[in-house]
């Protein structure tokens, strides 16, 4: 299994529970170092330097590819998709999980914070043209405290947009939960 854009390796341990081997690929040295520390006692997990456009793995070596908010896929990400096809074995499955800015509370916030990535029509047209299928998922963030929610929103959104969204959420009686829509794009190779 390949976790492309594994970040700090948060999902690597969980993925290793059901996979013989898991490779996390991450371009950012600081995040990669955290991922390596987090998984150092898991012999079936390795963390490598790489990008979506240059995955340091042999051809046809991966059965499952997982990319969760690794970067915002869509028009312009064709080199990364070509690379996914290169490392995927025949019959492999790939899953890209991305924000859906067309629905949900967080989707509206995301559209304001990242208008260049927010056009659902352009994304849908792009993915369909690349042979991928869409599974829309409506989920929610639930936090133990309002402070935790605010901290995550401030990480995910640009400063002024985060503050505006948090103020609106609080004014609407928002507590510690936020509706969050994502698209799971998938295909077999």
UniProtKB/TrEMBL annotation:
Matching SUPFAM superfamilies: S-adenosyl-L-methionine-dependent methyltransferases
Residues annotated as transmembrane: none
Superkingdom of origin: Bacteria
Residue ranges constituting the Methyltransferase type domain according to the UniProt record: 2-94
MF GO annotations: S-adenosylmethionine-dependent methyltransferase activity
Gene3D superfamilies xrefs: Vaccinia Virus protein VP39
PANTHER family: METHYLTRANSFERASE, METHYLTRANSFERASE TYPE 11 DOMAIN-CONTAINING PROTEIN
UniProt-recorded name of the protein: Methyltransferase type 11 domain-containing protein
């Amino acid at each position: 299994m390949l976790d492309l854009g594994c970040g700090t390796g948060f999902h690597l341990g969980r993925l290793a529970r059901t996979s013989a081997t898991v490779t996390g690929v991450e371009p950012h040295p600081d995040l990669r170092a955290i991922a390596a520390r987090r998984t150092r006692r898991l012999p079936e997990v390795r963390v490598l330097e790489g990008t979506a456009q240059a995955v340091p793995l042999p051809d046809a070596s991966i059965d499952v590819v997982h990319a969760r908010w690794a970067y915002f896929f869509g028009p312009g990400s064709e080199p990364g998709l070509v690379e996914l096809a290169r490392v995927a074995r025949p019959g492999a499955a790939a899953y890209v999980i991305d924000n859906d800015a067309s629905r949900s509370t967080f989707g509206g916030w995301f559209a304001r914070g990242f208008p260049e990535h927010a056009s659902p029509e352009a994304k849908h047209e792009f993915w369909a043209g690349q042979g991928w299928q869409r599974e829309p998922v409506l989920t929610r963030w639930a936090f133990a405290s309002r402070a935790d929610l605010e901290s995550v929103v401030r990480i995910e959104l640009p400063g002024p947009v985060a503050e505006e969204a948090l103020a609106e959420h609080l004014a609407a009686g928002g507590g510690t939960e936020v509706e969050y829509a994502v698209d799971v794009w998938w295909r077999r190779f």
